[in-house]
Design goal:
Order of helices and strands of chain A: HHHH
Largest interface: A-B, 12 and 17 residues
Largest sheet of chain A: none
Distance between the termini of chain B: 16 Å
Oligomer: heterodimer
CATH architecture of chain A: Orthogonal Bundle
CATH topology of chain A: Non-ribosomal Peptide Synthetase Peptidyl Carrier Protein, Chain A
Structural class of chain A: mainly alpha
Number of helices of chain B: 20
Shape of chain A: globular
CATH superfamily of chain A: ACP-like
Radius of gyration of chain B: 24 Å
Chain lengths: 77, 485
């Protein structure tokens, strides 16, 4: 099981902003630079860090960071 | 019938709102569907019948996709067939519209007995928006982002709801399905919807249409042999006309939606204040750009994240060429799309980092430069016109088209057009929003002053409504630019 602090590290690295603090409700609107181009980089970085692979449908279903975290934890368990 | 036609403003909309509000909730869906079909039938009774068939077929596609989505192969088949039929219909209609004059010229003897029909052919009202809405719905059902709609009446209203038929917004089923099932009602919502409608009407009639008259004259010339001052006036004027025309329509659609208890998606967010072309597209025609992002760009990017076969730049080019073609199957729209793709490719490379470090006014110059150049291709009737227009902008062409040959554009352009243009430029900035926030903060905790301000605001809106109606009565109205798509 991972928590928001662990996932936050990926966000800080991808968006190069140490001030980022994610929560379950965080969406692309809340983070400067989170557009469709960086979204794919973020997904790849998460997959690399946790050694998992999302399916296309899983990624397209993400509406907020909470959805991402739930999916990661499902895969890790 | 458009939002500005007297029949809509003084008969259809008031009668509909009264009937809709008087009916019990469980009957409102039927009232809305009947009104939407009447609205479409004003364009063509045939298309009203077409849309009934169209929604029935897509209702069945949605149900089929839900049943097929557990098995990968069946899901892919069901999705391919249902999306392909929608795409073929859209492309077929657009091709027919684009080439009907050529087909008529090629077949003057009317060999198939279809020329009369072809001559009268027009794109079914709102089909570009409706087809995109339906395609998104089908993909979402296949990806289990939403379940299919089982209630046929709700699905019919999702597909045909009249406020969003003319110029969108392109709604996602997942965002409004709860409202379709149980439309909330409140007096406050009706009042806010009416306010939003009046603002949209004013934007369209008092700014877009006034500026658009001179812009229209310039772009109706056979060849733009005009002075640079007029060329710049026409270009900046068109940028203002297009924004106020389209966002005015969006405000009216959102306002009518609010009066009925629906929260439609926002389509604009002060696009001309963007500091990059990427940001511009997150603020301009948001429901179309997010559609292309979510249903074409992201699936391609996601599927290739480990094994890239198509460069990201090619994907960006594809998206923007398709966005151009969505507007019309012409070379100008392809070039328009390529220009935006080029800007996006530059911004996603090292130039983007360089742009972010630039002095803010220069970031605006970069963005507006690309946008204005793109608008020349968007508005020009053909490529040759666009090229000549650029020469006029740069003063490289002898200005011979009287009266646009004059050096200074004061004689021809009357005061009302200048005022509308100046107002348009000012209101394209979020000044009104900031002023409203500032006043609300100042008046917080002072109920009497707050009430006074609300009364003043509503009186101003009434003045705006009267002025807009008076303008329609005296000068008529022009159809929305985005209605034709």
């Amino acid at each position: 099981m991972i928590d928001f602090d662990s996932l936050n590290e990926v966000f800080v690295m991808v968006f190069q902003d140490p001030e980022i603090r994610i929560s379950a409700e965080t969406t692309a609107d809340d983070i400067d630079g989170w557009d469709s181009l960086s979204h794919v980089i973020l997904i790849s970085a998460i997959e690399d860090k946790y050694q998992i692979t999302f399916t296309q449908r899983e990624i397209l279903r993400f509406r907020c960071v909470g959805d991402m975290l739930n999916c990661i934890n499902q895969k890790l368990s | 019938m458009t939002f500005l036609s007297p029949t809509f403003l003084f008969l259809f909309l008031p009668v509909f709102l009264v009937v809709y509000t008087l009916f019990r909730r469980e009957w409102r869906g039927l009232v809305l569907l009947a009104a939407s079909l009447v609205f479409i039938a004003f364009q063509s009774k045939f298309y009203a019948a077409f849309y009934v068939g169209y929604l029935l077929v897509n209702y069945l596609f949605g149900r089929w996709l839900e049943k097929a989505r557990d098995e990968d192969k069946s899901r892919k088949w069901a999705l391919s067939i249902s999306v392909m039929i929608n795409v073929l219909l859209l492309v077929g209609f657009k091709l027919l519209l684009q080439y009907k004059a050529d087909i008529l010229a090629w077949n003057p003897g009317d060999a198939f007995g279809l020329n009369r029909w072809l001559r009268a052919f027009a794109l079914p009202i709102g089909f570009s928006y409706t087809a995109f809405q339906i395609i998104a719905y089908l993909i979402d059902v296949a990806n289990e982002i939403t379940d299919s709609e089982k209630n046929l009446l709700r699905f019919a209203n999702f597909t045909l709801m009249f406020p969003k038929m003319l110029s969108g917004p392109i709604e996602r089923y997942r965002d409004i399905h709860t409202e379709l099932a149980n439309t909330p009602e409140s007096f406050e919502q009706i009042a806010n919807g009416l306010r939003r409608f009046i603002v949209g009407l004013g934007k369209k009639v008092l700014i877009a249409d006034v500026v658009g008259k001179v812009v229209g004259q310039v772009f109706a010339l056979d060849s733009p042999n005009i002075g640079p001052a007029y060329a710049w006036f026409a270009l900046v004027g068109f940028a203002i006309q297009l924004y106020f025309d389209f966002s005015g329509y969006a405000d009216m659609a959102i306002g009518i939606g609010q009066m009925m208890g629906f929260s439609f998606a926002e389509n604009f967010n002060y696009p001309y204040i963007a500091k990059s072309v990427g940001e511009f597209w997150r603020r301009w025609h948001i429901t179309l750009s997010s559609w292309f992002r979510d249903y074409i760009f992201l699936p391609i990017e996601i599927s290739q994240r480990r094994n890239r076969r198509i460069p990201q730049q090619a994907n960006l080019l594809l998206i923007f060429v398709l966005t151009g073609l969505w507007h019309g199957l012409t070379l100008n729209f392809v070039i328009w799309g390529c220009l935006f793709a080029m800007a996006m490719i530059l911004e996603s490379s090292f130039s983007g980092k360089w742009l972010k470090k630039l002095w803010t006014p220069l970031q605006h110059v970069w963005t507006l430069g690309w946008v204005l150049v793109a608008w020349v291709f968007f508005r020009s009737p053909n490529l040759l016109f666009a090229i000549k227009f650029f020469r006029s902008l740069l003063g490289l062409k002898p200005a011979v088209d009287y009266p646009f040959s004059q050096l200074i554009p004061f004689g021809l352009i009357d005061n009302s057009t200048w005022i509308a243009l100046a107002l348009g430029i000012l209101l394209a900035l979020p000044l009104g929003k900031m002023l409203n926030q500032w006043i609300s903060q100042r008046l917080a905790g002072r109920p009497k002053l707050e009430l006074a301000w609300l009364i003043v605001r509503d009186v101003l809106l009434m003045v705006l409504l009267v002025a807009s109606v008076a303008m329609i009565a005296s000068s008529g109205f022009t159809p929305g630019v985005y209605e034709q798509f």
